[in-house]
Every structure is written in C-alpha cells, then in structure tokens.
Amino acid sequence: PYQSMMAELSERQEQGVEERKKTIESTSWEVTLGDIHVNNIGQLRKLNEDTFPVKYADKFYQEIPTLPKELAHFAYLGGFVVGAICGRLESLPNSNKKKLYIMTIGVLVAYRKAGIGQQLLDYLMNNATKMNDVALIYLHVQTNNESALRFYSKAGFQRLGKINNYYKRIEPPDCYVLCKRLHCDTPYNELRSLLGCTSDEEI
C-alpha cells in the first residue's frame, strides 16, 4: 500500500509539472501591445535599466512620447510590462525617403525565448512596410552580442559593417550596423557610408 501510495503521489507530481509547463507555454503567447506615453514612460526607464548594459539619458525618455504611436510600444504579459520597442524616423540623405532607426528593443530576462521580442519586431516592421516613404530599417548591435545578431539575421537584416568605439562605457566598444531594406534600391556600398560604417562586411 505504501509503495502504491508513493507511486501515485509521484505520478500526480509529474502531472502537475506538465500542467505548469503547458500553462507557461500558453501564457507566453498571451502578449498584448500598448502605447508608450508620458504617463507610463517611467516603466520604460525601469525596463531599460533591467535589460541593457548602458544607461540612457533623460533626453532619450523625453523623445519617446513624441514618436508616432506605430513606432513605440510596450509588450504586456498578465498586465505587466515585460518588453518594449522604440523606433525613430530619420531623413535619408540625397533622398525624399526616410530611414527607421530601432532605438531599443528589449525583453526582461525571465520572459525571453517566448517569442515576445519577435512579436515586437514584427509589429514595427509591419508598420514600417506600410509607410511607403520608409526606405529601410537599421540598428546598432554590440559586436559580441551573438544572440541578437542571430535574431536579426533570421528577420532578414544584413550586417553592413562596423563602427569602432561606438559605445563609451562598455566593452567591447564596437558595434555592427544591421540593415533591412524595405522600399529601397540604394546599393549596399552607398548605404554603408550613409549609415556611418567605418569598416565593411561581406553581404
């Protein structure tokens, strides 16, 4: 009887673990997106402090609420902020089109690898694609951030080149410039110069 009771208890525990796994897996997809504005900008500051190795100046947080709502969003899970993406439109030299710069995209460590970052990036890219005057999307990634490089490569971003000493207070200080062309036929060699690359990468 004792052995039978222990076997039944063990089976129930295993079932409980599996149920919790299923709950986590299903919950990981129940993500909602929300605007970033003046009244909740403090949540973005806290998220960034917990996510990135660099500290963003007050000027950064003053700019975010002024961005088009399609370019700055929180990711909510269970009513809590677990991620965010912020992008800014910039003029493209020698063109009547614009470029979209991904300022930040981050997800809290405990919620990574659940597809939240991909949902944020997809949302931004879809909105940018609908803007016919946006030629390309680009961003900077620290040269040793292999997971981020793989993430953007899967999303169709090309590694254009490198900028030496881009970061001031972290090591390594260099970054790669990643680019995804949307409504753009500008050659990569020209884009490297326009986006400030100091060394080339093979495309």
Automatic annotation (TrEMBL):
- Entry annotated with the keyword Acyltransferase: yes
**Signal peptide residue numbers:** none
What keywords would UniProt list here? Acyltransferase, Transferase
Any one GO cellular component localisation term in the record: NatA complex
Query: Its Gene Ontology biological processes?
Result: mitotic sister chromatid cohesion
Name the Gene Ontology molecular function terms of this record.
acyltransferase activity, transferring groups other than amino-acyl groups
Q: Name one Pfam family in it.
A: Acetyltransf_1
Species: Aureoumbra lagunensis
List the InterPro entries hit by this protein, alphabetically: Acyl_CoA_acyltransferase, GNAT_dom, N-term/lysine_N-AcTrnsfr
> What is the name of this protein?
N-acetyltransferase domain-containing protein
Q: Where is the N-acetyltransferase domain?
A: 31-183
